[in-house]
Amino acid sequence: MPRKRNPENRGLPARWQLIHGAYYYQVLPGLEAQWDGKTKFRLGGTLPEAYKSWAARLEQAGNAETVGQLLDRYALEVVPMKSARQQLDQNRYAGRMRAVFGELLPTDIRPQLVYQFLERSPKKVAARRAIALLSHAFTETKVKKSFTDHDLRAKCATDAETFEQTRALLAHADICGRS
């Protein structure tokens, strides 16, 4: 069980810390080269500045346009850090997911598609592991555009300042969700 976060770090994204009035990101082992060779990268003195720096770093890493590209990026960044047996298994599962979902956009992945993949797969355990790999790939490559229609409606409702604006945003979300 991991240690509880310090009170000043609660509410911050994972691996972020507030140290001496500045926000830092604790770099994952093996990825220091992507963060100027540092194990703790200074994001900024204020929270908005830290988020801007974080977003700029994520954009530099490149966003995957398709699930196939996302899995390729996962294979380059995450799989090499695993044991030899896990690398073999992860590459096999990634190949299965690439064959099924490779041409889709990450935003097109819906729970119904994943359940259909599981139902049609003859090997249920391998299918569940492949689904876990896809979930981990989304998490590790920081895909932020994977959301449900419910998430879109909730976000629209909380962004509005007035009742009329809420109604307009929800109507727009309904139109976008149908297409």
What does this structure look like?
With 179 residues, the chain is mostly helical. The chain folds into three domains: 12-61, no CATH class; 67-140; 149-178, no CATH class. Helix content is 55%, strand content 8%. The protein has helices at 47-61, 67-77, 84-101, 111-120, 124-140, 149-159, 163-178, and strands at residues 16-19, 22-26, 40-44. The protein has a three-stranded antiparallel β-sheet. A hairpin with a 2-residue loop joins strand 1 (16-19) and strand 2. Helix 2 (67-77) runs antiparallel to helix 3 and helix 6 (149-159) runs antiparallel to helix 7 (163-178). It is globular, with a radius of gyration of 19 Å. The termini are far apart.
In short:
The protein is mostly helical and 179 residues long.
Average of pLDDT: 77
Strand content: 5-15%
Helix/sheet category: mainly alpha
Whole-Å distance between the termini? 43 Å
DSSP helix count? 7
Largest sheet, strands/sense/barrel: 3 strands, antiparallel
Name the poorly predicted regions.
none
Strand line-up across the major sheet: 1-2-3
Q: How many strands?
A: 3
Helix content: 40-55%
General form:
globular
- Regarding quaternary structure, what we see is single chain
Radius of gyration: 19 Å
